[in-house]
Amino acid sequence: MPGPTRSTRTSFVLVAEAALVAAALLAPARALAATESYTIDPDHSAVGFKIRHLFSRVPGRFTKFEGTIRLDQADLSKGSVQFTIHAASIDTDEPARDKHLRSDAFFDVENHPKITFQSTRVKSAAPNKLQVEGNLTIRGTTKPVTLDVDVLGFGPGLGAYRAGFEARTRINRQDFGVKWNDIVEGGGYVLGDDVDITINIEAARDKPKAAGAETKGQDTPATNR
Questions:
Q1: Long-range contacts of the stretch 185-193 (C-beta < 8 A, 24+)
Q2: Domains in the chain, number
Q3: pLDDT tens-digit series, residues 45-55
Q4: Between the CA of residue 180 and those of 104, 108, 225, what are the distances in Å?
Q5: Domain extent at residue 45
Q6: Quick one: which of 154, 158, 157, 166 has its CA closest to 73?
Q7: CA atoms within 13 A on the CB side of 52
Q8: In the chain, count of helices (H) and strands (E)?
Q9: Is residue 143 part of a domain?
Q10: Is residue 16 situated within a structural domain?
Q11: 218 found inside a domain
Q12: Helix (H) / strand (E) containing 218
């Protein structure tokens, strides 16, 4: 039987080259498809903090916040997070104290209504544990911080595919211009400088954006209880 002609061999080469080009073009699309976007569900999330007051540690929380998380479940180090807290939503179960905290003595919410965090790097620390580095802005001052994050899991729930995380960090409030304090009789100060922050997150995965769609929906509204 006669072997393939030169024309046939050329066709095979062209087809092979075309296949390689197509594979190269599709590779970024496949990588992009692995990246998922999640919207934080405020009804099933919480932002809390503790600070020393005299001889105890007083807790507080923020009740209004929102954020988005982008991640690849196969490689969480490729992820990112953007988080915004409304400073005026601070709540320590004492209205007079909360008013003081909203004032220029602390958060100055009239001039700096939002506290923001934008990640810059995600590192794997151990199985289901991450270190998320990023820029935290409070009262108009931005400083780098690192969040220690536990990955709590992924799966369906409440009509949507969901993800859960718990993040912790400690900051010095003085670094962010939150400097108010008072001297205790006999020496010492009313408030400590270190603030321990804990963020519990449940987030609902967004639906893929349909071709030509102007807005991006979710598997289900994040406010479903």
A1: 190/53, 190/54, 191/51, 191/52, 191/53, 192/51, 192/52, 192/53
A2: 1
A3: 999 999 999 98
A4: 9, 12, 39
A5: 32-205
A6: 154
A7: 13
A8: 2, 11
A9: yes
A10: no
A11: no
A12: none
Q: What is the 3-state secondary structure (H, E, C) of 63-74?
A: CCEEEEEEEECC
Q: Is residue 22 part of a domain?
A: no
Confidence of residue 14 (pLDDT cuts 50, 70, 90): very low
Please, are residues 113 and 85 in contact by the beta-carbon 8 Å criterion?
Answer: no
Residues 6 or more apart whose CB falls under 8 angstroms from that of 178 comprise 106, 107, 138, 139
Which one-letter amino acid corresponds to residue 195?
Answer: V
Compute the distance between CA of residue 196 and CA of residue 107 in angstroms, rounded to an integer.
16
Q: Which of 222, 223, 143 has the alpha carbon at shortest distance from 177? A: 143
Token duo for residue 138: 């409070």
Of 205, 210, 199, nearest to 158 by C-alpha is: 205
pLDDT for 6 beyond 80: no
Q: Could you tell me the CATH number of the domain that includes residue 41?
A: 2.40.128.110
Question: Structure pTM?
Answer: 0.79
- Residue carrying the six token digits 């903090």: 49
